[in-house]
Design brief:
The protein is built from 9 helices and 11 strands. By secondary structure, the protein is α/β, with parallel strands linked by helices. Strands 2-1-5-6-7-10-11 form a 7-stranded mixed β-sheet. A 4-stranded mixed β-sheet has the order 4-3-9-8. The relative contact order is 0.11. Bound molecules: NADP nicotinamide-adenine-dinucleotide phosphate.
Length: about 300
C-alpha cells in the first residue's frame, strides 16, 4: 500500500465539502482529516448513476496528531466568524489553505489567521443539493477556478485527473470572481425578492431591471480592477433569455427554505465596495436592505 504523502484537512462537510471529500478520499497519497460543526458519519454523494457512501470519522482539533499540509475550507461566508477559533487551532505556519466559497476577497475571512501567501482563494461552480435520500446530489461536473500560480499547482495535484471535479487555473482570478458575482447576485436578487424562478423574465420590465443591476454592479467591478468589457451585459441578457423557465438560484432556494442568504457574498459586498470607491449603488443597496431582514428575522444577521 502507498504511504500517504499529504495530510489534508477538510473543514465543513456540507454540499461542497462532501463533493470534495468524495474525490480526495480516492487519492491514496492523501490522509484526510474531517471537521464539521454537527455530527457526520459519512460522505454521501450522488453523481450521475454513481452513489458514494464513504464512512468518515470527525476529528477534534485537540487530539489532532499531525500538522496539516492543506486545509480546505468549505463553509458559508457568514460561518467564518464562529469558525475562527477552531480554524486558528488548525492553521500552522506551513499549512496551505484553500477557501472555497462565494463572494470576493475571500482571504479577508482568515485575516490574522494565515499568511496571505499560503491562502488560495477558490471559486466553485458545482450545483449540489441534498436529495430525499439524504445524499448530496451533484448535478454537473464541478469546476474550481483558481489563480494560476505555484500554490494552485500544488492544490491541483491533490485532485489529479478525476471525473467529478476539474481545477481550472486562470491568469485573472479577480475578473473571473466578478463575472460570477455580477451574474449570480443580479439574477439571484430578482428571483429571491420575487420568490419565483426564471419564468418571470417573460416580462420585459424584469429583463430591464436585471440589466440595470448588472450595469450598476459592473461599474463597481471595473473600479475594483476586474477586466470586463461592456459587452458582458449583453452576453448576460442573451444567456438569461435562454434559461429554462424553471431555473432558480441559491439565493431563491435559501429564501424559499427559510435559510440564511449569503448576502455579504452577493449584493452586500457590491454595496460595500461601491461605498469604498464612492460609487452610487442604489439597486444593490435596496436589495441588500430588503433581504437583510429575511436574515434578521432568523436572528442570524
Ligand atoms: N452547494 C452548492 O451548490 C454551491 C455551489 C457553488 C458555490 N457554493 C458555495 O460554497 C460554499 C459552501 O456551501 P455549501 O453549499 O457546501 O454549504 P453547506 O451545505 O451549508 O455546508 C457548510 C458546512 O459547513 C459546516 N460548518 C459551518 N460552520 C462550521 C464551523 N464553525 N465548524 C465546522 N463546520 C462548520 C456546516 O455544518 P453543519 O452540518 O452543522 O451545518 C456544513 O456542513 C458557500 O459559499 C456556497 O455559496 C455552493
Amino acid at each position: 500500500m502507498k504511504k500517504a504523502k499529504f495530510n489534508v484537512g477538510l473543514f465543513g462537510i456540507g454540499a461542497i465539502g462532501s463533493v470534495i471529500g468524495s474525490v480526495l478520499s480516492q487519492n491514496k497519497l492523501i490522509s484526510m482529516a474531517y471537521f464539521n460543526r454537527s455530527k457526520k458519519e459519512s460522505l454521501k454523494v450522488k453523481y450521475g448513476e454513481s452513489k458514494n457512501n464513504i464512512p468518515i470519522k470527525l476529528e477534534s482539533t485537540l487530539n489532532l496528531s499531525k500538522e496539516l499540509d492543506w486545509l480546505i475550507i468549505a463553509i458559508k461566508e457568514y460561518d467564518y466568524v464562529n469558525a475562527r477559533k477552531t480554524l486558528k487551532e488548525l492553521i500552522k505556519p506551513k499549512t496551505n489553505i484553500a477557501i472555497i466559497r462565494n463572494g470576493l476577497n475571500l482571504y479577508e475571512s482568515l485575516h490574522g489567521l494565515a499568511n496571505r501567501s499560503n491562502v488560495l482563494e477558490c471559486l466553485i461552480d458545482c450545483p449540489t443539493q441534498k436529495n430525499d435520500e439524504d445524499y448530496y446530489n451533484q448535478i454537473t461536473k464541478g469546476k474550481i477556478v483558481v489563480q494560476n500560480n505555484a500554490l494552485s499547482n500544488s492544490f491541483a495535484k491533490l485532485f489529479g485527473e478525476n471525473e467529478q471535479l476539474v481545477i481550472e487555473q486562470t491568469v485573472d482570478f479577480k475578473t473571473a470572481s466578478w463575472e460570477k458575482l455580477i451574474e449570480s447576485s443580479s439574477l439571484g436578487a430578482i428571483l429571491a425578492l420575487s420568490g419565483e424562478t426564471c419564468w418571470i423574465f417573460e416580462d420585459q420590465e424584469l429583463i430591464n431591471l436585471y440589466k440595470k443591476i448588472v450595469i450598476e454592479s459592473l461599474q463597481v467591478g471595473i473600479k475594483d480592477g476586474a477586466k470586463i468589457d461592456s459587452n458582458y451585459k449583453d452576453q448576460l441578457i442573451l444567456k438569461l433569455k435562454k434559461y429554462p423557465s424553471t431555473k432558480g438560484s441559491s439565493m431563491l432556494t435559501d429564501r424559499l427554505n427559510n435559510r440564511r442568504i449569503e448576502l455579504m457574498a452577493k449584493n452586500g459586498i457590491i454595496s460595500e465596495l461601491g461605498k469604498k470607491y464612492k460609487l452610487e449603488t442604489p439597486l444593490n443597496d435596496l436589495i441588500y436592505n430588503l433581504l437583510k431582514y429575511t436574515n434578521i428575522k432568523k436572528n442570524v444577521y
